[in-house]
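User: Structure please.
Assistant: Input sequence and predicted structure:
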Amino acid sequence: MRFNLLCVLFCTFILALADASRYTGGLAELEIRQKISLYALAIDQKNFALLSDVFTPTAVANYPPNSLVRGLPAIQAFLKTQLGDIVTQHTLSSTVVDFVNPRAPNSTAYLVAYYFGQGNLTGQTLSFYGRYRDQWEYRGGGWKTKARELVFFPPGVIGNLAILGAASS
């Protein structure tokens, strides 16, 4: 009887460790970093459906100067409207994932975004520097962003703003 009780306690401990390991450590950090990169690939390739692998269904995204977007379908529609007709390249670097709260980690990723003019704007560019600040949640067997904030760094947006207008005309 004593052996069975020890076995049950030991197995419970091992299972608890296995459950906790999906919330912290190298594999969790790797998955979060992959999702950060997947976001850039999704918007640069105009595959906005891929964003369902990045954001929770109820995610909130704050895009400057004043666009607070709520819910995955709204985020997909917003990005498609803003970037769908623009050739873009989002380069992410200097990514840090912190697990101060193992069940709700945060990440910061620096970015440089390039937007390339088309048609009569060919050869012209628009770019900006900034960071994404994300809050993550373990949901449906994987990590997803539940909140994203984009913050521009000085000097702000550089280049021809008409590139943004050309996409909506």
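The radius of gyration is 20 Å.
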